[in-house]
Amino acid sequence: KMTQQMRDLQLAQARKPPGPSSPNAAKRLYRNLSGKFRVNYTSFDEGSLVGRGEKEKLRKTYLFQSNAALFEAVELQDLDRVQEMLKHYSPEELDLNTPNSEGLLPLDIAIMTNNAPIAKALLQAGAKESPHFVSLESRSLHLSTLEREAEQRVNELMAQVVNEAPNADCSEKEKQLKAWEWRFRLYKRMKAGFEHARVPDAPSSVHLSVASSTSLQVTFWEPLSVNSAVVTKYKVEWSCSPTFSPLLGEAVIDKLKDLHFTIQGLVSGTVYHVRVSAYNMKGWGPPQVSTPPFAIPSNWREYDGRAPRRRGQAEALDHLLGQVKTVHQHCICHEPCKNQPQSRKHSVSKSLKHLFHPGSKFLKTLKRGLYLTAIFYRDDNILVTHEDQIPVVEIDDTYSCLLMQDFLWLTKVSCMWDEILWLRQCVTVSQSSCSCILQTRFKMLLAISQMQGLLGIQDLGQVFFEPIKDKQGNILIVTLKEVKTNQTFESVRWVPICKLQTGRKSVSSPEEPTALDTLLISLQDKLAYHQRSSHALSPGLYLGYLKLCSAVDQIRVLVPEQLPNILCHVKIRSNPNISREEWEWLQKMASVEEPVPSEPETDRSQNPLFQELQVAIKELMTLVNIPLQEAKDFRLYSQEVLDFGDQVSFLLLLPPSDDVCTAPGQNNPYTPRSGFLTLPLQIFELGEER
């Protein structure tokens, strides 16, 4: 037990000036003081500090001020200030879980004054209760001691103020008296809060789902009544017996940002029962049994023992590519010298030879032909040549109008930018057939090599899903890549996109814009497409809608603009796993050739997946602008669940077989609303792989 003198000393150090007597005055004083706690010690000029000792002293002062400010904010119930400090400082910087001189933590003060908003904010930041309170008796005794000593100190200071003549010392003692009176009231409020609290009710709901063949996911919600004390942790228990005797395991969850827990390491095909109970400063409340009352770890693949579709595919492709390279290895020595001049030109960036050599310059204008342009962007800036032009090189000035197959081939080449030299060598050897297709593709590889050499960059990024064409007969193939580091380049430089667009408008013809003009006009849309195509879905099970349309030379797939690398979709639930029991139910639906259900039936109303699918189908039909009554003719793809890693899976909703793919000239009665586009199927497949 600390001596009274030590308490007074620590209290004076931790809280200067002493707290005033009224809450309003305390808040005013706190606002005046809080400004100094916002000072970040790292903003000082470290060159002016003398040695490490001075830096360490400054750091400790900063941490001490931050910790003291947090205690003040909690005691004064200043939620805004608490949230601000938790947002700007880490738990370590705030010393969040180190007790003060009274043996209390910020969370202790918040829960014993029953300030739920502040307590929840602290809990989400990782705050803990004081380890000194090992029992209810120890907490009660500690609060009584703090209250008694504060009352004793108030009486002592009161006597001194009354008996002494007015002077400077008396004024200081009056301030101390007001601070101790305020602290005495705080301790009384904390003690009353503790005495009136009771253990919390059971969690209001506990949901149990199958996460995999060896795990279950438990999601729970706060009790409807916490009985005047904030819940600070939960306990999840599981057993093979409905009586929970014996227990197979338990886990205490004290990180309350997300109220869910995954039970790992279970045995597939075994029945498990789960329950959850809540804890506050008065102890553990009664448990709540999960809904459903038990679950069996499983996965839909166990239904027929099917192996994952992509198992070993990456390794097999790498092996196949290695074999191809081995066969063509004798080609490697034939051409390496052809690519060297560009590298040497690039290194001598400011020489006249580099600036005026016809093979090393980017194009400024387009004549009738096929061209390649590379868009590199960072924030609102784009890479341009020293003449403020987008980097463009010529592919071919005698291209065939039937470009689509060569273009789609180029999109596949974009997956192996580092192998362009090797591909050139192989295509060169194959040109003995004089194939026009091979000649065009060889010219594409030459243009790629030229672009890489001039930029000094191997990875040109992702090919935009369609070339840009103009009335002058130009076709522009666009690659897009985001640069996330502050790189500098010799032959190009960064300029704001708006500046480039403004300069181009002054020289372009609005009546007949060139492909470059069209590119600049639509540049923001293309950059937005590129960024969105790399976004990933949050974990969960989704319902996707497969709709195709065919043309003379390609098949296109309907996708949302916001996520063009994914089919049109809605989220069914956060758990991506389909259990064996759920898959069996889906197979039964498919075997009797039932239409997609639109109204619940008595024997299905208790099936969670059925209810989730109903909601998802209605939402998806609204999204793609298809009348709900037409859903009766749609089908769920029942051959497999499409797994994209471990966290995302899809069930597919298919139109009637005659409407899955709309043929050229065929009328599509249901046109999706705005916010969708159609991608060539090969482009979509590449985007999904990325």
From TrEMBL:
Pfam families xrefs: fn3
CDD domains, A to Z: FN3 (cd00063)
Database matches in Gene3D superfamilies: Ankyrin repeat-containing domain, Immunoglobulins
Record's GO cellular component terms: spindle
Protein name per UniProt: ANKF1 protein
Entry's Gene Ontology BP terms: establishment of mitotic spindle orientation; regulation of establishment of bipolar cell polarity
Encoding gene per record: Ankfn1_0
Chain residue ranges for the region called Disordered: 1-25
Residue intervals of the Fibronectin type-III domain: 202-299
Organism domain of life: Eukaryota
SUPFAM superfamilies: Ankyrin repeat, Fibronectin type III
PANTHER family attached to this UniProt entry: ANKYRIN REPEAT AND FIBRONECTIN TYPE-III DOMAIN-CONTAINING PROTEIN 1-LIKE, WIDE AWAKE
Organism, as annotated: Loxia curvirostra
